[in-house]
Amino acid sequence: FLCIKKTFKIRTILKFAKLTYRLNYMASLAENPKIFHDYEILETLEAGIVLFGFEAKAIQNNMASLKGSYVKILGGEPYLINTHISPYQAANTPKDYDPTRARKLLLTQKEILHIFMETREKGLTLVPIRIYTKGRRIKVAIGLAKGKKDYDKREKLKEKAIRRELRMHRS
After folding, report:
1. Half-sphere CA count of 3, side-chain side, radius 13 A
2. Among 36, 32, 20, residue whose Cα is nearest residue 70
3. 10 Å Cβ neighbour count for 88?
4. Are 77 and 48 in contact (CB under 8 A)?
5. Which of 65, 1, 71 minimizes the C-alpha distance to 33?
6. Do residues 144 and 43 touch, judged by C-beta distance below 8 A?
7. What is the spatial distance between Cα 141 and Cα 32, in angstroms, rounded to a whole number?
8. Cα 101 from Cα 6, distance rounded (Å)
9. What is the pLDDT tens value at each position of the chain, 171 positions in all?
10. pLDDT number for residue 135
11. DSSP class of residue 90?
């Protein structure tokens, strides 16, 4: 009987540990607020990001902002530009730290070539969608996007307003 109790306790502990791991597995740490309003996302990619240790800690504490950031290919390598990552502890960060510095993205050579061709030939833009964790790693979801025209944005807002009104009349 004691053996059954012990195995039951161990199983419940393991289930709880797995559940918390799954919840933290792909936790979103920062999102681009107006990305779906300004762009039509055609394709998404997952990229690793090169960070300093204190930057990684700051991102995990939700101290990052993707507002106004974009991805650019410089010298055959993709860089995340204009992403603001506040210092984790202001007193312990280096004096010459730039919170909006260009950060290298980690993609395979095949993926880099693909997005390079898409941006050159079709005139698409590379934009970061969100920063999230995958296991213990910090990842960036980047999207090949086409900019929306103003009239497209207005149409979308009208549709949204109509749906909202219909929902209100139903209730």
Report:
1. 0
2. 32
3. 18
4. no
5. 65
6. yes
7. 10
8. 53
9. 444 444 555 555 555 555 444 445 567 888 887 888 888 889 999 999 999 988 898 998 889 999 989 999 999 999 999 999 988 887 777 888 888 999 999 999 999 999 999 888 888 899 999 999 888 899 999 999 888 777 777 887 888 888 888 888 876
10. 84
11. G
- Per 3-state DSSP, the chain is made up of helix, strand and coil in percentages (nearest 5) of 45, 30, 25
**145: Cβ contacts below 8 Å, ≥ 6 apart:** 35, 39, 40, 41, 42, 124, 125, 126, 127
Could you identify the residue written with the tokens 């393991």? Answer: 14
For the chain, where are the alpha helices, taking DSSP H only?
Answer: 2-25, 35-38, 53-60, 109-121, 150-170
pLDDT at 141: 93
The set of residues, in sequence order, having a beta carbon less than 8 Å from that of 74 and lying 6+ positions away, is: 102
- What is residue 57's three-state secondary structure? helix
* Single pTM value for the model: 0.73
Q: What is the pLDDT of residue 171?
A: 67
Length reported for the chain: 171
How far apart are alpha carbons 92 and 49 in whole angstroms? 22
In the beta sheet, which residues pair with residue 126?
144
Q: E strands along 50-124, which residues?
A: 64-65, 70-74, 77-81, 84-85, 103-106
